[in-house]
Amino acid sequence: MIGFGQAGGKVVDKFLEYDKRTGSEIVRAAAAVNTAKADLMGLEHIAEDQRVLIGQSRVKGHGVGADNELGAEIAEEDIDEVQGAIDSIPVHEVDAFLVVAGLGGGTGSGGAPVLAKHLKRIYTEPVYGLGILPGSDEGGIYTLNAARSFQTFVREVDNLMVFDNDAWRKTGESVQGGYEEINEEIVRRFGILFGAGEIQQGQEVAESVVDSSEIINTLSGGGVSTVGYAEEEVEERSSGGLLSRLRDDGNDEELDSAHTTNRITSLVRKAALGRLTLPCEIEGAERALLVLAGPPEYLNRKGIERGRKWLEEQTGSMEVRGGDYPYRGAGFVATVILLAGVTNVPRIKELQQVAIEAQDNLDEIREESDDNLDELVNDDSDELESLF
Ligand SMILES: Nc1nc2c(ncn2[C@@H]2O[C@H](COP(=O)(O)OP(=O)(O)OP(=O)(O)O)[C@@H](O)[C@H]2O)c(=O)[nH]1
């Protein structure tokens, strides 16, 4: 996982924290790349020798101030320094690369697509992007940056997973506090998704368990992806809750499994129809993956099969995969749905529209100022001598 820019670095840092907290091993290796020294110093879990400061000769460690063309130029010039950090990674142990960046600023917005292109040229492993869209209240330059970066990034990666800050922002919260919660949300969803492909040795592995090839197959084919999530608290069986009492009275087996199946079905609907990382119409998604995580006694084949069928109907896709992620002691059952190759995304259309208008305006403003300059320079009454 490589975080580019401030948002990218912070999210990758959070994934490492998630690994520590849950004992999972989603992140085989992590690095952060930035043009701003202070941002790199603020990270907590990414090793210091895996924090790469680029563009020092150009911006002296102060960032690129939302200029994503400069961000891209610097990334190209200093790509060897980034590669230096990646060289220390045992790449044969990784399933894929994930480049994470906020697309509204300068460093990550400009640099992430450059890095993705570089990785794809060198490695055979898939290269995915996790792109974070800015809030619509952040202003025009952020929208323009995001629209241009999005277009480039999606072309350079094997799949671009998207999280839209705009859909998740809460009013009345400080930006920092808001990001803290948002980053938790990102890591919870993608943590369960990527964790599903990371079943540890010694863990019981049922046939229906998701493996990393299913995630890779769902993502392959490119395009844009979004992720849905829903969870419900459950009691561990051994704790003597209602379900264990039902089990004790002899004729519970069927009732119990019907209950489990129904819970799974409703979780699948909630996840697909609730707030997605990138809100969109799920109809028309090209591929989907359904992951059901939780204590094994709360997972059943029938529930997943029903959920999968329902997703096939809703998306119209023939490529809907599904499986378990046994997670002992989780205290919850959660459903994660990856929808890949989505096309009907209002926010992306809106971004592109605003960006085209801004671009036109820019051209107009430039033309206007060229005319003004012409007038100014060629004005006969102007008595000032040219400097050159
Ligand atoms: N979800 C999330 N989004 C963030 C966070 N920090 C910033 N963003 C978003 O990411 C966009 C880019 O911001 P940064 O990552 O700070 O920018 P940068 O890539 O470091 O580039 P410069 O600061 O311009 O050099 C912003 O417009 C925000 O929308 C964060 O912690 N979490």
TrEMBL record:
Q: Which residues form the Tubulin/FtsZ GTPase domain?
A: 2-191
Mention any Pfam family matching this sequence. Answer: Tubulin
Positions binding GTP in this chain are Q6, A7, G8, G9, K10, G106, T107, G108, E138, N165, N183
Q: Mainly localized where?
A: cytoplasm
Q: Which GO terms describe its molecular function?
A: GTP binding; GTPase activity
**SUPFAM superfamilies given in the database record:** Tubulin nucleotide-binding domain-like (SSF52490)
- UniProt record similarity statement: Belongs to the CetZ family.
What is the protein's name according to its record? Tubulin-like protein CetZ
Q: Identify the species of origin.
A: Halorubrum tropicale
